[in-house]
User: Which sequence fits this backbone?
């Protein structure tokens, strides 16, 4: 497995992975599929993007993690999103991706990284907790387009504390 910076040429494969995860449901707040142009703008090369890494091996894309700026967060915070092939979870890709993202956060002088996860995404909540993220806010009323209340939990990682 290797970790590298994502490029706009990766957007098609990244979009296909994210759309598969959206179709499966249960682990992302995204409910509408995104095309490669959206993925490029929001995760790879848009103005708000801080970094985007992907994990791959001889079989292709394992997953990706992007960190950007979010207007609702304090200055000096990054906002992280992670997507790993459901068939390839628990392979170390997520940990390796976070190592690369954290290195950029430190180099950029960020104070903290935010992750906002669906309250029913047990795997995602566990992933961020294992990285050292701690709960700091919640929205128990967050609901999906179909009306189901799943809640959301925001977790914070103190970059300077490590």
Assistant:
């Amino acid at each position: 497995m290797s970790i590298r910076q994502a490029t706009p040429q990766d957007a098609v494969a990244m979009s296909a992975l994210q759309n598969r995860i959206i179709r499966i449901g249960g682990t992302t707040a995204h409910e509408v599929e995104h095309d490669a142009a959206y993925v490029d703008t929001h995760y790879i090369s848009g103005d708000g993007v801080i970094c985007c890494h992907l994990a791959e091996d001889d079989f292709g894309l394992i997953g990706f993690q992007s960190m950007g700026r979010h207007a609702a967060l304090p200055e000096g915070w990054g906002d992280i999103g992670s997507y790993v092939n459901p068939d390839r979870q628990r392979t170390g890709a997520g940990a390796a991706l976070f190592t690369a993202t954290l290195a950029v956060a430190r180099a950029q002088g960020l104070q903290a990284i935010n992750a906002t996860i669906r309250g029913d995404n047990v795997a995602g909540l566990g992933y961020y907790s294992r990285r050292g993220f701690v709960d700091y806010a919640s929205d128990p009323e967050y609901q999906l387009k179909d009306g189901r209340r799943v809640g959301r939990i925001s977790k914070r990682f103190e970059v300077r504390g490590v």
